[in-house]
Specification:
The protein is an alpha/beta fold. The protein has 13 helices and 9 strands. It is 46% helix and 20% strand. The radius of gyration is 20 Å and the shape is globular. The protein starts with a strand and ends with a helix.
Length: 307
């Protein structure tokens, strides 16, 4: 039995998948299995890519139809044999010491610790430039922090999870086609403790073909999250306000400024001291096109400052 099961869901990402798999094989800790779950890819290339590595630790499983990221991760969990489970998105990459450092911290921690996560580097895929260093800082109550901000844990690829967590809180919610990892961290944090490593051990690539640019999925996901955890969100009106701000921005970027304004107004009512709430509300009055142009100009400015 392997110590760690690495679950890599993939869907139509033949250009990215080899780098993800290679980053696992290059880990300094080698007692792992890799489970590649092909979520109904239309190009049928994932199986060929896996076969090219000729490594018996890699297993390939295919969904005949696309079921979504949550379902793909659940398939991997169900067949996993490791005591710990790590998730790697097919367009991300691990740095070599990630698993070793996480497992060392698990062994030094109490059995109440269910998740060890790391920092990451947000990288522009086309230019290779680092856009942002996302480094964890000292946390208090992890659930409280999660309710304040969704980005406490910078993506599913940074986490190593004790398999026992899924026995206690269940698998990923397959109704959530976005925000599924955030939902899982909220659920686990009510039962287990979290630890972190303040090093960027994951490269999170930003590109046009990323799920986080699918506005419809993001909107449906966050609205479902509100319904699912409304009791918890209302415990932190400042945090709930932030999430409505985020929802408003996504609505405006999708072209629906009317719903975007409603979300900004809701954010202001929940927490009237957020300057960004008012800025985005005024910006939405300029129309969807201008809203998007300003946001894109801001992103380009950030990229230019990093160069």
């Amino acid at each position: 039995m392997s110590e760690i099961s690495v679950v890599i869901p993939t869907y139509n990402r033949r250009e990215f998948l080899p780098l993800a798999i290679r980053s696992v094989l290059n880990q300094t800790f080698q007692d792992f299995e890799i489970i590649v779950v092909d979520d109904g890819s239309l190009d049928y290339s994932a199986k060929e890519i896996v076969g090219e590595f000729r490594d018996p630790r890699i297993r390939y499983i295919r969904h005949e139809v696309n079921k979504g990221l949550s379902a793909a991760r659940n398939t991997g969990i169900k067949v996993s044999k490791g005591r710990y489970i790590a998730f790697l998105d097919d367009d991300d990459e691990w740095l070599p010491e990630k698993l070793e450092l996480q497992l060392d911290l698990f062994k030094k921690s109490s059995s109440d610790v269910g998740v060890v996560y790391t920092g990451c580097l947000k990288v522009d895929r086309s230019s290779g430039k680092v856009i942002q260093h996302m480094i964890p800082t000292k946390r208090g109550n992890i659930l409280k922090d999660l309710l304040l901000r969704d980005c406490v844990i910078a993506g599913g690829s940074t986490a190593l999870v004790r398999k026992e967590c899924f026995n206690k809180v269940g698998l990923f919610d397959e109704n959530l086609l976005a925000w599924e990892a955030y939902d899982m961290w909220i659920r686990i944090s009510q039962v287990f403790l979290f630890e972190y490593i303040d090093l960027p051990l994951v490269k999170y690539y930003h590109h046009r073909n990323k799920m986080s640019t699918n506005f419809n999925l993001l909107i449906k996901g966050i609205e479902l999250m509100f319904k699912k955890h409304d009791r918890l969100f209302y415990q932190s009106k400042k945090g709930f306000s932030y999430h409505y701000l985020r929802l408003g921005v996504i609505y405006c970027l999708s072209g629906d400024v009317k719903r975007g304004r409603y979300a900004f107004i809701k954010a202001i009512k929940l927490y009237p001291f957020g300057v960004r709430h008012y800025f985005n509300l005024v910006l939405s009055l300029l129309g969807a096109g201008n809203f998007k142009k300003v946001k894109e100009a801001k992103d380009q400015l950030v990229l230019s400052l990093k160069s």
